[in-house]
Amino acid sequence: MKTSEVKTYYDNFGKKQDWQGFYENKAINTLIENSDFQKAKSIFEFGFGTGKFAKDLFEKYFSDDCKYIGIDLSETMFAIASERLKPFKESAKVQISDGSTNLEFPDNHFDRFVSNYVLDILSDEEISKIFSEAKRILFRDGLFSLTSLACGEGFISKQVSNIWESVHKIKPTLVGGCRPLDLIDFVDEKDWEIKHHFKINSFGITSEVLVLRNP
Ligand SMILES: C[S@@+](CC[C@H](N)C(=O)[O-])C[C@H]1O[C@@H](n2cnc3c(N)ncnc32)[C@H](O)[C@@H]1O
Asked: Which residue is closest in CA terms to ligand 1's atom 20?
């Protein structure tokens, strides 16, 4: 999907994004358990959606001096997340982006880079760019924590991901522009230490959780 189509889709989808929790929550909770957010001081989120993830982290995990910045290309998502994160406005900043994978932050700026169910919307080239930008803007020892839709393992999950992929090829808007992929294939082990890697099934839908350390 073109960036303009992704923007239109998520501008219309808005709060319905939270309903995807039925298959996303298990993977996102696994990411949280393995990303040591209690120790984080500066967090960047790519594609914050409704801001639910950031709000949960502020309520349960972030320390008082932790700063958060998120970007998203959807104006609707920006409005929802801004409202949701109002109680944390001293520490949380959300911005609208133009969808570019060139991130306008200095080198060595964050100790966490998080993105949930966004890279599966991007082209392979854009995903590679996000990996190199994450390496650039993370401090040494910073964590790059990702969840995405993944290729199924096991009979039922394989069928589900094959059907999903076919639908994505015919009409990507029916599946929010997301397609199953294996993020692990984008990891260059010269650049990253793989700290955690899981495949998680929820209602037949497979997700990948990847936590990488910038060595
Ligand atoms: C499937 S939703 C996931 C939202 C949220 N991270 C979650 O897990 O609920 C994808 C989000 O990424 C945003 N997005 C998609 N492509 C983007 C891009 N190139 N740059 C910034 N945000 C993007 C969409 O607007 C949408 O809010």
From this structure: 99
Show the domains of the chain with their CATH numbers.
3-213 (3.40.50.150)
Q: What pTM did the predictor assign?
A: 0.96
| 24, pLDDT greater than 90 | yes
Q: Which amino acid is at 179?
A: R
The protein residue whose alpha carbon is closest to atom 12 in ligand 1 is 47
Round to whole Å and give the CA distance between 117 and 115. Answer: 7
Pocket lined around ligand 1, Cβ cut-off 6 Å: 6, 10, 17, 24, 47-49, 53, 71-74, 77, 97, 99, 116-118, 121, 176
Q: Which atom of ligand 1 is nearest to the CA of 45?
A: 6
Question: What rounded mean pLDDT belongs to the chain?
Answer: 96
- pLDDT of 155 above 90: no
C-alpha angle with apex 15: 81 to 89, nearest 5 degrees? 10
